[in-house]
Amino acid sequence: MNLTKESFQQTVTGDGIVLVDWWAEWCAPCRSFAPVFERASEQHPDMVFAKVDTEAEERLSAIAGISSIPTLMVFRDGVMVYSEPGALPAASLEKVITAVEELDMDEVRAKLGA
Length: 114
Hints:
- This is Thioredoxin.
- It comes from Paractinoplanes deccanensis.
- Belongs to the thioredoxin family.
- Pfam families: Thioredoxin.
- Keywords: Disulfide bond, Electron transport, Redox-active center, Transport.
- This protein is 46% helix and 23% strand.
- The chain has one domain (5-113): Glutaredoxin (3-Layer(aba) Sandwich).
- Strands 2-1-3-4 form a 4-stranded mixed beta sheet, with helices on one face.
- With 114 residues, the chain is an alpha+beta fold.
- The longest helix has 16 residues, at 28-43.
- The protein is globular, with a radius of gyration of 14 Å.
- The protein has 5 helices and 4 strands.
């Protein structure tokens, strides 16, 4: 799924887990991360895997504070719970996914409210 300025907010604020890959065509690390991200999407059909082309969506990228690509953001139940630049190997991406699945969202929301 490709996200735009118009579809981003609605996609990331829903229930469940949404992974967003911020990338650009000219970015070699982005191109090396793309198949890893694609395989993970096939292994986790219950999650939303989305991409934002930072060249096509410059304003959205600026609003999101993207300064390095690729950047992976993960949202769970409308809350951003992970954001890191860099191309992850498959095993590291799986660790991130597992950690997000295991989060106690009541605890996360309590910490955000504090």
